[in-house]
Request: fold
Amino acid sequence: MAVTEYNISNLFSRSFGYEYPGEDFKINKENLDKYVEGFKIDTSYTRPVFSKKGQPFYATDDFGVEFFLPVWLDDYLVPFAVISINCKKTIITTPLPERGGSVKELISIDDYVINIKGMAVNYGLDYPEDQIQTLFNKFKINKTLKLRSALTDIFLEGMQDDAGNDYGHRVAVKSLNFPANPGVEHVKPFELDLESDTVFELILQ
Reply:
């Protein structure tokens, strides 16, 4: 029998091994109660709303709950997203005989590997079929997508043409995973693995 009351943070923890770093709230299928548990610190500090790259630090979900570090794939606000990015270099190492150590020659910076974990939620408290279909459409499309967030904008900022069109922030979706979530019919965890796609401008002379 499926549960009729659930907690997003607990479900996120059960699916991915750590708690969702957002507001803790519960949804009750019978009365659709929505509430937020937490604390508030009074301060005169004015928090920054946008990053230095122009991306918002905060957004509001369909529950009206504000959350930190929203993530967009094209025009799709990824629900309950937690994002990480992995940067590596290709380095050639040449040992130094009789001296110890090695000489290291930087060849290139590899593509950035990006991981997004999230939770697809049906706000009518039925199976989140539409959200799953949207995510699958993002996966199966045969072109790169534009990824925007305050974190990834630092790494994926690209060049612009004379008309101001931005060629940066492009990623390819490498995999989409829906972990098992037994007994919960209204929430489906998901995980996206992305890879950056650098766009080069070819100039013929």
The chain has one domain: 50-196.
